[in-house]
Amino acid sequence: MNKNVSVLVGSLRRGSYARKIAHNLIDYFPEGYNARIVEIRDLPLYDFDYDDPQVSDKPTPPEYALFRKIIKSSDGIFFVTPENNRTIPSCLKNAIDIGSKPNSDVAWENLPAGIVSHSVGRMGGYSSQKNLRLALSYFNMPTPGQPEVFLSQSPTLLDADGHVTQESTVEFLQNYVSRLVQLIEQNTDSR
C-alpha cells in the first residue's frame, strides 16, 4: 500500500527556491511513496472563532476542512521553508495553526516530519527551522535526527532548470529523505 507524504512549501511564490528544492526532494522518495505538494496559499487566516462551538455565525471554512483531512490522511509531512525575518513565513505558520485545531482532533499529532530550510545567505534558514521545530514539538511529531538540513546560498545549488546538481548535496538530501522514510515506516508499524 502506498504511503502519502504531504509536502508543505513555506513560500507562495511560484518560482521560489523552496518550491524548486521541494520538487527535487519529491523525486528522491522511493517507489510506493506518493509525495506531493499541498498548497497552502488559499487557506484563510486562522481565526479561532471558526472552531469555537460558542460562535455560531462563523462556520469553519471548507479550505480548513479539506486541509485538515489531507494532513490527517498523510503518513508523513515534509516542510521545505525559507527564512523570513528570522522566523518561518506567515503562510506556513497559518497552516500549522489551522492543522492544530480543533484541540480534540489535531491533524499533526504524531505524524513523522522532515524539515529542510534554506536561505540565500550563509545561515541556511537556521532561525526558521528552529522556530518550526518549536511549533511542531507541541504535536509530538518525530523528526529525523542529525544531521539536519540547512541549505545555505540556495540559488547556487540549483541549475537553470531548478535541479540540485552538486553530487554531494544530492546525496545528502537523498540520505535525509531515506531517514524520513525509515521514520515513517517505523511509525506505521507502531500504529
Automatic annotation (TrEMBL):
Cell cycle recorded as keyword: no
Annotated EC: 1.5.1.29
Family annotation (Gene3D superfamilies): 3.40.50.360
Enzyme class of the recorded protein, top EC level: oxidoreductase
Limits of the NADPH-dependent FMN reductase-like domain: 5-154
Pfam families found in the cross-reference section: FMN_red
UniProt GO MF annotations: oxidoreductase activity
Keywords: Oxidoreductase
Origin superkingdom: Bacteria
InterPro entries reported for this sequence: Flavoprotein-like_sf, FMN_Rdtase-like_dom, NAD(P)H-dep_reductase
Protein name as annotated: FMN reductase
Organism: Glutamicibacter arilaitensis (strain DSM 16368 / CIP 108037 / IAM 15318 / JCM 13566 / NCIMB 14258 / Re117) (Arthrobacter arilaitensis)
Upper taxonomic lineage: Bacteria, Bacillati, Actinomycetota, Actinomycetes, Micrococcales
